[in-house]
Amino acid sequence: MMKIEHIKNDLFSFIKFEDIFDEEELDLIWKECSFLCHEEKMLTAIDTGSAKDDYDQLLKQNKAIFLDDLYTDNRYCNYLKLYKKPIFENQNKIDDFIKDDFNLRLFRATNMDRTLVNYYEDFDYYSPHRDNACYTYVFWLFKEPKHFSGGNLTFDDINYEIDVKSNSAVLFPSWASHSVDAIKMTDDCKSFSGLGRFSFSTFFNFRM
Asked: Could you tell me whether strands 160-162 and 168-173 are parallel, antiparallel, or unpaired per DSSP bridges?
């Protein structure tokens, strides 16, 4: 059964989801990952609009691709057919969270989104940054038992670290600084082995 938790602090709050998809749904998403995880499909950080520091240096090292650039219709993408499941199935709880939290209040008013699939392998990371969006939803997936260490998400403004679990996600205001600590593969894997850390980052915004 899916779990949902509202975590509040003095600066902002966020929503955590665990055990989101069932085995059949996960199988569909893994097929998508297997199809995408290839050096001729996934792009470098500079080609996917990654954040930069004050000296114009990239803050991220990994491979990624925007699903919306691959598919003109969500029906053709396994993940995009499923990605709003935790939001639809927990509407009442999320609405209660929103009523109790000013920072989440605009989420229901967003009317457009884009999804970036990130793949992290040996030494890949994302330094502290903020997303160019209103809200960010990140879903994590990796093979179990886990073939790497690291890869946890930290909200840097509040020094809060999330021990990333497969088939889990977090929804938060995009202005909250967050980072991914470096991945270290525990097995001798070839590049694009698919044994690293996948994250599907959906950026919610407004279309005027």
From this structure: unpaired
